[in-house]
Amino acid sequence: MAQEAAAVANPQPQNQQAAVTNPEAQNPEPTLAGNDEEVLDLGNLKSDVWNHFIKIKKGELIKAKCNHCKKLLAGESNNRTSHLRNHLKSCMQRKIHDGKQKVLGANFVTKGKREIVATQFNAAVSRQDLAVAVIMHGYSLSMVEHLYFRRFLSGLQPLFSVPTRNTLKSDIFKMYESEKSRIMKLIGGNKGRVAITTDMWTAINQKKGYMAVTAHYVDNSWILRSHLLRYDM
């Protein structure tokens, strides 16, 4: 009877005892990611912190996976982002690859041998290289919005913020205007004459006609130069 009276006087829920004996249940440590995960779309998440995380579904839980150290943290929408920012401050992998430290790598050359040089990540140069790749290979602008292409780039360099389709289009037009101005200055400063040629052809599969206008001249160093001035269809 005395024990029952003590239990009534001092009730203590079992779940509260579990929380006291196991405090890690309320604040679990980040866990390493495994293979049983599904990448989810970020949707309307606009916080810049998501440039360093991807949202995945692991079992029945929604997690935020760090692009740098691959650890998993709470990723539900009601978890806010303060814990993600705190993780970025202490993430050692992010500090190592913060873009300020040079790493050894092979420089890209079209011909000849590759050399091992110390390189440093430059977001502006990488964005320009992406625009050049789209121009030279005729890639679709929507490629930058493909989930697994963005995931691929994130694995190569987590600090690179992949531009949207409209931003990429704007970069290409800016590059066009810059190249146009550069070519006009080269031709205007040449002391010799300029020959203009046109090429016309029809694409059989598309049934469309194309025309290209090209300028040819010998520069002041006696080197033959050719520049595409206009391309119409």
TrEMBL record:
Domain of life according to the entry: Eukaryota
PROSITE patterns for the chain: ZF_BED
UniProt keyword list: Metal-binding, Transcription, Transcription regulation, Zinc, Zinc-finger
Positions of the BED-type domain: 44-104
Molecular-function annotations in GO: DNA binding; zinc ion binding
Biased composition (Low complexity): 1-20
Region described as Disordered: 1-35
Transmembrane parts of this sequence: none
Protein name: BED-type domain-containing protein
